[in-house]
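Re: export button greyed out
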Amino acid sequence: MKNHRRLHGSFFRLGYRLLAAVLLLPILSLTYLSFVQQWEFPQLLDAQYSLQNWSDAFRGTDGLIESFLTSTVLALSTGFIATASGFLICRAIMYHRHKTLLLSLAYYPYLIAPVVLGVMLQFYFIKLGIMGTLAGVLLAQFLFIFPYAVLFFAGFWTEQTRAIEGQATTLGASPGQVLRRVLVPMAKAWLSTCFFQCFMISWFEFGVTKFVGIGKVSTLTVRTMQYVKEANPHVAAVAACLMVLPLVVFLLLNRRFLIRNTENHD
Amino acid sequence: MLKRTTFIVYLLLTILPLAAGMVYSLLYSLGMAGLLGKGFTTAHWQALLGSHEIWTSLAYTGLLTVLSLALMLAISLPLAYGLHFSPSGKGSSLGLYLPLTVPPLIAALAWNFILSPSGIVSRMAYQLGMISSMDGFPRLVNDFANVSILVTHVFLLFPLFTLVFLNIAKKENVSGMRDMSDTLGATHRQFFRKVFSPMLLQKAGSLLLLYAVFLFGAYEVPLLLGRSSPRVVTLIIVDKVSKFDLAGIPVGHAMAVLYTLLIGSLVTVMIVRKQRQSRAA
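Workaround output, generated via the alternate export path:
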């Protein structure tokens, strides 16, 4: 019996290690590729190591820094606008008598594939003259990130929050003071998590960014795909690292931000 | 007044763009809008519904979705069980957060580097003397069995679901349940099959459906790792609408309408299910 348990334990430990390797392998392999040059078959670890790909990226010759900044500006703007508007609009929805029905509406634009939403809205984007512009990509991303923010905050605007709000109003606080001094401090953790989630959705987005941006709005995902198509895997690996490594650092600092609002869907 | 304005803004931002997009695509597919619009016709819908490519694509996308979810569950459920009941396992879940920092496009790129004939696994196989050239390595990228797509989907999903299952197991006091089932004489395998897995699947049902919808609309991973035929629905829609063949555009719009209706129905099922669950609770 003891031997059987020991064997069982070893089996599980082996399984965990195998899974840990699977989890690490993609990021490690991309990092490795970004530091090698002319990596030809069947070379494995005996490659020509170099900082050339990274120094080219930082010198700006590949346009990677430009793409990094575009992605950052886009993700920060989308994250900020979606979080702020989602927070306030969700309040009105959750205090409405038809809150379930109203909240359900947010699922539809959120769950349609963004690229298909982009295809269907292409005509309107052309009419508005925002195809191929940063504003156009921002709007296209906002249209499916905003519903996510609304759904996210549904867990915050509870009866308890309403009661606290009512109490502050009874004690003489104006609506502005209730928002600034009561609700925002109360929702600080919710706001920061939602902002980070919205930032990540925008940061990760490729399909609709490519479609609405028509190649002119070159985010890191668009740039990465361009390098893949040009058969330039080493620079693509640098671009991939620029996308992933800041988030990994953030994960080590605070993992709470990475889990989506799964409780809402249980 | 402010309340009313808020609702109008909400509807303007959620339902109006989707509805406007659907109306335009529907009109385009019926020949009533766009460059080729010469008046009402059902020819494009007939072309769509009579096309073998479209039905194959729908079935193929559905199959990829179901297989990805099934494989993910085959890993996540036992892993969550093992981590929940292992004294050392509870603290070792940090690694599970790692794939949450990887965008689908980058995951696809990484698995392409790992699984392609000139990739890492193939080179390792060569170094170990298992193959003599890269031609000897089985095709795992852009392949018939979609190995690389499935691996990428599972890599992106199983950590998230394991964390969700761990969370549910903690909330539902699964440890207490297992003690009770031990007392009643059930084996741990029976507990896993008859109590642990069904309970977690039921609790995470809505989330599973949500991810099924996401997988059905996957774009980047099949774009990089899929075959040229059959292709997933999103790839066909984008290709038809953005290629130079003008005749394909109305069919692409018809396909977009069909896809949106399909997803809309699934979302409605999910919402109704959720409402029933919350009423029962």
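The longest strand of chain A covers residues 36-37. The button fix ships in the next patch.
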